[in-house]
Design a protein that fits this description.
By secondary structure, this protein is an alpha/beta fold. The protein has a domain at 51-59 and 72-200: 3-Layer(aba) Sandwich (Rossmann fold), CATH 3.40.50.150. The protein has helices at 4-15, 23-31, 63-72, 90-98, 109-121, 158-162; strands spanning 52-55, 58-60, 80-84, 101-106, 127-131, 144-149, 164-175, 180-188, 191-200.
């Protein structure tokens, strides 16, 4: 089951009609087989307009949310991107299509190993993955041009902000366990500019600089 028509329909009806304009993002999401990143029993729902469970209390985000967050990163193809929360690996693959290199961290071993196997099977060679507390970031390969956090944090994690390049962009859901807002953070020297984007709802980022387990 390849679902090519489902991917085209997803992009047309869920992304373009809601204002996603970056043609590179649209092309990537037409290409990547999203159904491979969800449990086999849910593959018929893979292209629906909703998140889906992937095990371990985690989810694969709604297609529109993936497209919106990635578009907001303003990727041109030359960036080094740090992703916090590999999850299923779907967004990781989208980022790999659009940037030079992706560094992705997942704290849950079973999800990380499954995502790594799938990503390698699809032939991506510009992704590095690590099983760790993502709130610490990936300091030895910092700074990064872009950082995307796919889990909610009560505050902007200071280690991650310190690993963002000057003029770099970070996307992060901020708020409480029940009320969150997606924000865009632009680093400007020792200062940061925070732009409110939209309400959202993500699982919590568990870690030393996120939510304590």
């Amino acid at each position: 089951m390849e679902f090519p028509s489902s991917r085209l329909k997803m992009v047309k009806e869920q992304l373009i009609t809601r204002g996603i304009k970056d043609q590179r993002v649209l092309t990537a999401m037409r290409k990547i087989p999203r159904h491979l990143f969800v449990p086999e029993a849910l593959r018929s729902k893979a292209y629906g307009d909703h998140p889906l469970p992937i095990g371990e209390g985690q989810t694969i985000s709604q297609p529109y949310m993936v497209a919106f967050m990635v578009e907001t990163l303003e990727l041109k193809g030359t960036e080094r991107v740090l992703e916090i929360g590999t999850g299923s690996g779907y967004q990781t693959a989208v980022l790999a299509e659009l940037s030079e290199k992706v560094y992705s961290i997942e704290r849950i071993k079973t999800l990380a190993l499954k995502a790594r196997e799938l990503i390698e099977g699809l032939g991506y060679i510009n992704i590095l993955m690590r099983i760790a507390d993502g709130s610490y970031g990936w300091s030895e390969d910092a700074p990064f041009d872009r950082i995307i956090i796919s889990a909610a944090s009560p505050t902007i994690p200071e280690p991650l902000l310190s690993q963002l390049k000057d003029k770099g962009i970070m996307i992060v859901p901020l708020g409480t366990e029940t009320s969150q807002t997606l924000v865009k953070v632009i680093k400007d020297g020792e200062r940061k500019r925070v732009i409110t984007l939209s309400p959202c709802f993500f699982v919590k980022m568990i870690g030393q600089h996120g939510w304590k387990n």
